[in-house]
Amino acid sequence: MKSLPLDRIRVLDLSRVLAGPLCTMMLADLGAHVIKIERPETGDDTRGWGPPFAPDGQSAYFRSINRNKLSLALDLRDRGEVELTKQLIADADVVIDNFVPGQMARYGIDSGAEMALNTSLVWCSISGFGADSTRPGYDFVVQAEAGWMSITGEIDGAPMKTGVALVDVITGKDAAIAILAALVGRERKTAADRHVHLSLVHSATAALVNVAQNVMVSGTEARRWANAHANLVPYQLFQALDRPMVLAVGSDGQWISAMRALGLDALAEDQTLITNAGRLMHRARVVTAIAERIASEPAEACCRRLDAVGVPCGLVRSVSEALGQVGSSPVTGVAPIANGRVRYPSPRLNEHHKLIREHGWSSFDHLPIPSQGTRD
After folding, report:
1. Which is it for the CA torsion 84, 98, 44, 9, positive or negative?
2. Which of 161, 186, 233, 365 is most exposed, with minimal Cβ within 10 Å?
3. Is 214 exposed, middle or buried (0-12, 13-18, 19+ CB in 10 A)?
4. CA 139, CA 150: separation in Å to the nearest integer?
5. SS3 call for 214
6. pLDDT for res 224
7. Which residues, in sequence order, are CB contacts of 354 under 8 Å at separation 6+?
8. Known active-site residue 168
9. Cβ–Cβ contacts within 10 Å for residue 208, how many?
10. Catalytic entry in 29, 44, 168, 174
């Protein structure tokens, strides 16, 4: 079997909930050996975030971000358990934590001291609002404070969060990228360079991308556009005869092609609409004409004609419909990125305590032949 890119990179996961565990699952999908440290009895908070729960009792939430890991329950208030944690840190390549700043030190684990002993160790700390803030970081709160909710929702409606905990997801992916960058040439880097700090609020603010730049360049506050786009027309939701669909015109060439495909030749030939700037000025007229046309036939028929001329469009699918288009399993979740692999299902709480206590990081050499498993 082809080796994975991060084969035998040792990652100690001291994180919980979503951002940190997503990051370590991504590293595990790429071949890293990940040991997840959990609290005794209750484990990661998300073990109890349900229903739904799988037949074996695991919450769907926990299962979505914890495959390919071993689980060890340790009480970090116990000195002996802390010493075992330090032993694992001493031979790790990466440690990731999302404790409230200062909490690890109170348990007797000092990242600086550990990195001085293990001079190739990469440490990633994730906080809610930065290393100097003890505010707990929850995705919903950060979506509010990072400006996301002020630009999401219906134009005249209440501020709205996204349907996925996207701040946590983006931060987890940012963390994976930062860790991989820190691993490159780590032997030549100082401890400061190898200690990566991320915060939910920074990742969320950076993810505003063009919206943030619009505000900085124009000096005008961003506002909600519902399912339309601030800078492009037409680029929004339309209701077809049978279901909603989206049309996303990203260039003037696509505009001409789209209008001809939809039978709106008059719009294609209107010189006031030939550029996106013109269409922005006449947004209401353009959107009304397209909406009336799309409402007259099924969404799939519209999409077929738009697809045929290379115009981006799509049906608004349910989650079940969307999952049918990609590899997914109720046991192991959505398939990993292309150069990753599912090897083990998410672990039961403390499932590998005996193995890890006896063999430490060599535990992975004593596991059964990797498989996707069906432990329901």
Report:
1. negative
2. 365
3. middle
4. 15
5. helix
6. 94
7. none
8. yes
9. 16
10. 168
The whole-number pLDDT of residue 376 equals 56
Give which of 9, 11, 14 is closest to 74, Cα–Cα.
Answer: 14
Helices (H), 64-128: 79-90, 103-106, 111-117
Rg over alpha carbons for the chain, rounded to the nearest Å, is: 25
- Amino acid sitting at position 35: I
CA angle 17, 161, 36 (to 5 degrees): 10
- Strand ranges of the sheet holding 69-73, from the earlier edge strand across to the other edge: 69-73, 33-38, 10-14, 94-97, 122-127, 195-199
321-335: string of b/e by CB count within 10 Å (b at 16+)?
eeeeeeeebebbbee
Residue 286's nearest CA partner among 261, 323, 253, 255 is 255
For residue 327, the model assigns a pLDDT of 81
Give residue 66's identity as a one-letter amino acid code: N
**How confident is the chain (376 residues) per 10-residue block, as mean pLDDT?**
90 97 98 97 96 95 97 96 97 96 93 95 96 91 97 95 97 98 92 95 97 96 94 97 98 98 97 97 98 97 97 96 87 88 95 96 85 52
Contacts of 110 by beta carbon, 8 Å cutoff, 6+ apart: 104
Q: Are strands 235-239 and 244-248 parallel, antiparallel or unpaired?
A: antiparallel
Longest dimension (CA), the chain: 78
